[in-house]
Design a protein that fits this description.
By secondary structure, this protein is α/β, with parallel strands linked by helices. The protein folds into two domains: 32-242, Rossmann fold (3-Layer(aba) Sandwich); 247-415, P-loop containing nucleotide triphosphate hydrolases (Rossmann fold, 3-Layer(aba) Sandwich), CATH 3.40.50. Helix content is 38%, strand content 14%. It has 18 helices and 13 strands. The strands form two sheets. A seven-stranded parallel beta sheet has the order 3-4-2-5-6-1-7, with helices on both faces. The chain has a six-stranded parallel beta sheet with strand order 8-13-12-9-11-10, sandwiched between helices. Strand 3 (129-132), helix 6 and strand 4 (155-158) form a beta-alpha-beta unit. Helix 3 (67-75) packs parallel to helix 4 (92-100), helix 14 packs antiparallel against helix 15 (397-415) and helix 15 (397-415) packs antiparallel against helix 16 (420-427). The radius of gyration is 23 Å and the shape is globular. The protein starts with 26 loop residues before the first helix and ends with a helix.
């Protein structure tokens, strides 16, 4: 078995995952005083029940899984902590309560780049939604604030950074708030794979607005991360809803990396011709070269990373969402919050840093429930590369130890001779039986007892 890479690794070329998602408060935000207005007026367009909103607004006949219980918990004014896999319908768990309860539901989300798409999708079905972030000019922000204070919004999206701005909290004090939804709640966990320091301040929601129900949601959390979310967000009285992490329609496969671009091309031509998919690479250079390689070989591929300006990224993202058969080649800067049901494959040309990251990224395939592929190529060079990154990372020895544990768990998943689905679900504390559909089930690797010759 040989290990090589099509694209050399350059440590200066690594993708800063939060570069375009972070939203620093502007000088205007810090210094501007809001013009005094009348107190917020209650909304008059609320629905009589969750079922009414589900059918009338979203066009569904019935809830899935625990959705009905979760929604009723929040409608009744209680807190909820929800662990539900990608594609499980988490968004409805806060969108519907916001349509039933009086006031505006405030959604805390790190996904600044997606807020416009989320608002557009809700507006298309008649939900009065808006966002406040650094992409808006003062007139746009003033218009949203006016609508909020006049009870004209069902949902308002905010990045967690905005709550550092005193004027934002003052604005919410003067509004009628129906609930707080904390999306991607695993970002509060320092043990998690996607820690964002600004999430640590979200305990203020309970302290400043104790009577407003909160719902925290994530698609990726180990038991340790689950407990840390509860503690750091002060959700001690919340009901916990933990759905199965199993995505039975996704086939998990891993291959020895020798010529990854060519291996990828063979996969797309033989199994996914004309299908939409996502290819993850570690560096920007690898993204660009892989996208060029696919285009030269007749694949409709687009590169996505944090290098281009926000307008070009938005246009690329829009093409992927709206056109058929686009293959997005991206760093991990792409994907969180993306809702495209017919993604037929997710491929990794480099080793993910954690099982949580791998699960979240592969979970973007097959949201429509149809058969999909999660394919990964990895080799010894990937392991050495990740070890160097950990050794050179910022933070103390404990932080580096945590990163090492994440990598060890990812390697264990790659090297297992057992069912990959059993190993993956076991990482999240879920017991299962062999799926019969992953690569190790369909073609069990040879194994032997090395202690026998040693004797």
């Amino acid at each position: 078995m040989s290990w090589s890479a099509d694209v050399p690794w350059d440590p200066d070329d690594l993708e800063p995952p939060d570069e375009f998602e972070y939203e620093p408060p502007s000088v205007e935000d810090r210094e501007r005083e809001f013009i005094a207005r009348e107190p917020a007026r209650p909304s008059s367009s609320k629905y009589s029940s969750a079922s009414d909103a589900l059918h009338t607004v979203f066009g569904y006949d019935s809830f899935r899984g625990d959705q009905a219980e979760i929604i009723q918990q929040v409608v009744d004014g209680g807190d909820a902590l929800v662990l539900m896999p990608t594609g499980g319908g988490k968004s409805l768990c806060y969108q519907i309560p916001a349509l039933v309860r009086e006031g505006t539901g405030v959604v805390i989300s790190p996904l600044i780049a997606l807020m416009q798409d989320q608002v557009d999708a809700l507006s298309a079905v008649g939900v009065r939604a808006a966002f406040l972030n650094s992409t808006q000019d003062q007139a746009q922000r003033m218009g949203v604030e006016h609508a909020l204070l006049n009870g004209e919004l069902d949902l308002l999206y905010l990045a967690p950074e905005r709550l550092r701005v005193a004027a934002t909290a003052d604005l919410l004090d003067r509004a009628s708030i129906s609930l707080f939804a904390i999306d991607e709640a695993h970002c509060v966990s320092q043990w998690g794979h996607d820690f964002r320091p600004d999430y640590l301040q979200l305990s203020m929601l309970h302290e400043r607005w104790p009577s407003v129900p909160r719902i925290a949601l994530t698609a990726t959390a180990t038991e340790q991360t689950h407990l840390e979310i509860q503690k750091r967000l002060q959700l001690s009285d919340a009901r916990h809803f933990v759905a199965s992490f199993d995505r039975p329609n996704i086939q998990y496969r891993m291959a020895a990396k020798n010529a990854p671009q060519q291996q990828l091309l063979e996969l797309l031509r033989s199994e996914h011709p004309g299908d939409a998919g996502i290819v993850y690479c570690l560096s920007r250079a690898s993204v660009e070269k892989t996208a060029d390689f696919l285009v030269q070989n007749g694949i409709a591929a687009l590169p996505y990373h944090a290098g281009p300006d926000s307008r070009l990224r938005a246009a690329t993202q829009s093409r992927f969402l709206r056109e058929d058969g686009i293959v997005m080649v991206a760093t991990i800067a792409f994907g969180m919050g993306i809702d495209k049901p017919d993604v037929r494959f997710v491929a990794h040309l480099d080793l993910p840093k954690s099982v949580e990251g791998y699960y979240q990224e592969t979970g973007r395939a097959g949201r429509d429930g149809l058969p999909s592929t999660a394919w990964l190529a990895y080799g010894l060079q990937d392991v050495m590369q990740q070890r160097r990154m950990i050794d050179g990372s910022e933070g103390d020895a404990e932080h580096r130890r945590r990163l090492g544990l994440h990598l060890d768990a990812m390697l264990a998943l790659c090297e297992t001779v057992q069912c990959r689905r059993v190993q993956l679900l076991g990482y999240f504390g879920e017991t299962s039986t062999a799926c019969g559909n992953c690569d190790t089930c369909l073609a069990p690797p040879e194994s032997w007892d090395g202690t026998v010759p040693a004797q």
